């Protein structure tokens, strides 16, 4: 396995070298096209100092098929709203932080991230930009919004009006029209626990399907008027219990273009023992049985009635970490005293930071059979995905017949978009004869 490890690492390095110069392949007739979905978080423009201009400058934008803007919120009265109007359409960007290199000026019709998205689309007309609704901390009232037919109709109509028709409060009618190409549902989770305080009902499972149907109907009506197709996607859980509690697997894909499956947070620093957070397969010797893995998550969705081509595997651009690790060895499956210190939060760290650790007391460990990599310095342990690991995942995506890869989130990548370049190269396919 050491020889295979060296070969795969060398291939990953070659992928980055080629990807640095090569543009993304055209999505022309006759090509096998995989979805490459990157999340951009509205709050990343603050402390993380990560703007959409960096998605463009790094080369990531040219290698995506979809960009999901996270998150729009669901209000207590069952309507769509902005979680941060200042970030979405209020703040101005100077020339050096603007996608088109031109500074925003006072009085322009639209500013903020939405204007930057419009500039990004102007450079990449084939890029599909979706508004993601909900998220971990924004799913509190999804159950109420989906409760009955009048609630669903009102909620979906408000989302279409705000995000797709572009009728932003306080601005000219339609000022943000044609920025978004669809809607991504990030209800975490129908029928089962998510963030503290979420409204949860047993009826959520059926109501999620009905909500997706209502979105599909209203998006199609809008699309007929606009002579275009609007995408509808959903973020889907990895845990079989959550799939069973909240999703009618066969029915929901009548309305979704595809679903992105959570391929991370299988384990994390909330636990007292080091583990993997995003392995392809359950590692030998894992202490939990049953356990989570990307393959188990995909198989659970297939068993629930989903087609493999409709499933897009989520890949983390961050790691989960523990410190105070005892027990020796390579550090995996060992007791720990708590979360490892992180730049933005204890227990998590961006890939761009973790990529600097090898050679600074940390050694990279790999389990190719499980599809899992980690860093360990004898005390602190980080489980994460690097380009070599991601290349193995793209091979799995192709071999398993999946629809592509999703990335959470773009701000975790390095300045050269190494992870995104690896995904794009790994999911490139030559023209069919």
UniProtKB/TrEMBL annotation:
<keyword id="KW-0119">Carbohydrate metabolism</keyword>
<keyword id="KW-0146">Chitin degradation</keyword>
<dbReference type="InterPro" id="IPR017853">
    <property type="entry name" value="GH"/>
</dbReference>
<keyword id="KW-0378">Hydrolase</keyword>
<dbReference type="GO" id="GO:0006032">
    <property type="term" value="P:chitin catabolic process"/>
</dbReference>
<dbReference type="InterPro" id="IPR001223">
    <property type="entry name" value="Glyco_hydro18_cat"/>
</dbReference>
<keyword id="KW-0624">Polysaccharide degradation</keyword>
<protein>
    <recommendedName>
        <fullName>chitinase</fullName>
        <ecNumber>3.2.1.14</ecNumber>
    </recommendedName>
</protein>
<dbReference type="GO" id="GO:0008061">
    <property type="term" value="F:chitin binding"/>
</dbReference>
<dbReference type="GO" id="GO:0005975">
    <property type="term" value="P:carbohydrate metabolic process"/>
</dbReference>
<comment type="similarity">
    <text>Belongs to the glycosyl hydrolase 18 family.</text>
</comment>
<dbReference type="InterPro" id="IPR001579">
    <property type="entry name" value="Glyco_hydro_18_chit_AS"/>
</dbReference>
<keyword id="KW-0326">Glycosidase</keyword>
<dbReference type="InterPro" id="IPR029070">
    <property type="entry name" value="Chitinase_insertion_sf"/>
</dbReference>
<dbReference type="GO" id="GO:0008843">
    <property type="term" value="F:endochitinase activity"/>
</dbReference>
<feature type="signal peptide">
    <location>
        <begin position="1"/>
        <end position="28"/>
    </location>
</feature>
<dbReference type="Pfam" id="PF00704">
    <property type="entry name" value="Glyco_hydro_18"/>
</dbReference>
<keyword id="KW-0732">Signal</keyword>
<dbReference type="InterPro" id="IPR050314">
    <property type="entry name" value="Glycosyl_Hydrlase_18"/>
</dbReference>
<dbReference type="InterPro" id="IPR011583">
    <property type="entry name" value="Chitinase_II/V-like_cat"/>
</dbReference>
<feature type="domain" description="GH18">
    <location>
        <begin position="34"/>
        <end position="430"/>
    </location>
</feature>
């Amino acid at each position: 396995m050491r020889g295979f490890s060296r070969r795969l690492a060398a291939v990953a390095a070659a992928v980055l070298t080629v990807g640095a110069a090569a543009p993304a392949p055209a999505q022309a007739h006759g090509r096998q096209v995989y979805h490459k979905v990157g999340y951009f978080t509205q709050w990343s423009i603050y402390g993380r100092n990560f703007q959409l201009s960096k998605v463009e400058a790094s080369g990531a934008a040219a290698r995506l098929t979809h960009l999901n803007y996270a998150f729009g919120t669901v209000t207590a009265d069952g309507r769509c709203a902005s979680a941060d109007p200042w970030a979405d359409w209020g703040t101005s960007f100077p020339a050096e932080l603007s996608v088109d290199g031109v500074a925003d000026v006072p009085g322009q019709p639209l500013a903020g991230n939405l204007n930057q998205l419009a500039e990004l689309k102007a450079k990449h007309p084939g890029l599909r930009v979706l508004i993601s609704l909900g998220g971990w901390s924004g799913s509190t009232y999804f159950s109420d919004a989906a409760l009955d037919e009048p609630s669903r109709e009102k909620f979906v109509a408000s989302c279409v009006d705000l995000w797709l028709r572009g009728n932003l409060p306080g601005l000219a009618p339609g000022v943000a029209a044609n920025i978004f190409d669809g809607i991504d549902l990030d209800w975490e989770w129908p029928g089962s626990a998510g963030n503290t305080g979420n409204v949860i009902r047993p009826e959520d499972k059926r109501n999620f399907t009905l909500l997706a149907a209502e979105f599909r109907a209203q998006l199609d009506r809008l699309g007929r008027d606009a002579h275009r197709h609007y995408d509808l996607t959903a973020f889907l859980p990895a845990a079989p219990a959550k799939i069973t509690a909240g999703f009618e697997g066969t029915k929901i894909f009548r309305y979704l273009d595809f679903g992105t499956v959570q391929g991370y947070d299988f384990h994390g620093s909330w636990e007292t023992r080091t583990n993997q957070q995003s392995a392809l397969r359950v590692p030998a010797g894992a202490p939990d049985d049953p356990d989570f893995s990307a393959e188990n998550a995909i198989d659970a969705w297939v068993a629930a009635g989903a087609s493999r081509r409709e499933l897009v595997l989520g890949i983390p651009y961050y790691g989960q970490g523990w410190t105070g690790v005892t027990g020796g060895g390579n550090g995996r499956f060992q007791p720990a005293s708590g979360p490892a210190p992180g730049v933005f939060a204890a227990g998590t760290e961006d890939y761009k930071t973790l990529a600097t650790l090898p050679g600074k007391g940390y050694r990279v460990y790999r389990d190719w059979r499980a599809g899992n990599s980690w860093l360990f310095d004898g005390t602190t342990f980080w489980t994460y995905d690097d380009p070599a690991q991601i290349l193995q995942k793209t091979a799995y995506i192709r071999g398993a017949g999946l629809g592509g890869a999703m990335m959470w989130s773009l701000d975790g990548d390095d300045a050269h978009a190494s992870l995104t370049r690896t995904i794009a190269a790994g999911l490139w396919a030559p023209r069919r004869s």
